[in-house]
Amino acid sequence: MATKSVSVRIPEESLRELERIATLKGQKVSDLVRDLILERLTNGSGGGNQLVIEYLEGFGTVLAGIHNEAARSRYYAELMTSYAMDLQSLMTDGKVTEKDAKESLLGRFSNASMQMANESWLRALNYQKPPEGEPG
Asked: pLDDT digit string (tens) for 96-122?
């Protein structure tokens, strides 16, 4: 198939958005623009799904950032809890908490934290637990 070049002028904000999307997809801007034009020509106005896909791809980046921050926060929380347990044990028993006892307690804290997080998500999603005996 023979190809021809086309040159268009677009606002700077649009170019920045195209560059952002191209970077997310690992493409050159020219390849992305060509794909968008051909998609629109072949699928008509059905390109609305592409907007949803692009939004979700950007949302994935945000979620990854949130996940990293949550992991960092959890690490520091566990570290501080471990130090607090050792300080308490030093003050009461004259020695640091034994490793197994500390891991057991931190495991219980972790399980309780996960349960609270799950319940928080369910509340945020307005999930209602089905009555006993009905499928969930």
From this structure: 888 898 888 888 888 888 888 888 888
Contact 22, 29 (CB under 8 A): yes
| 14 pLDDT above the threshold of 90 | no
**φ and ψ of 68, to 5 deg:** -60, -45
Number of residues that make up the chain: 136
Token pair belonging to 41: 């020509």
Predicted confidence band of residue 46 (pLDDT cuts 50, 70, 90): low
Phi-psi region of 44 (alpha: psi -120 to 50; beta: other; left: phi over 0): left
Q: What whole-number distance in Å separates Cα of residue 60 and Cα of residue 33?
A: 22
Domain ranges in the chain are 13-49, 98-127
Q: Which one, of 39, 12, 8, 11, lies nearest residue 25 by Cα?
A: 39
Q: pTM, whole model, 2 decimals?
A: 0.41
CA neighbours within 13 Å on the CB side: how many for 15? Answer: 5
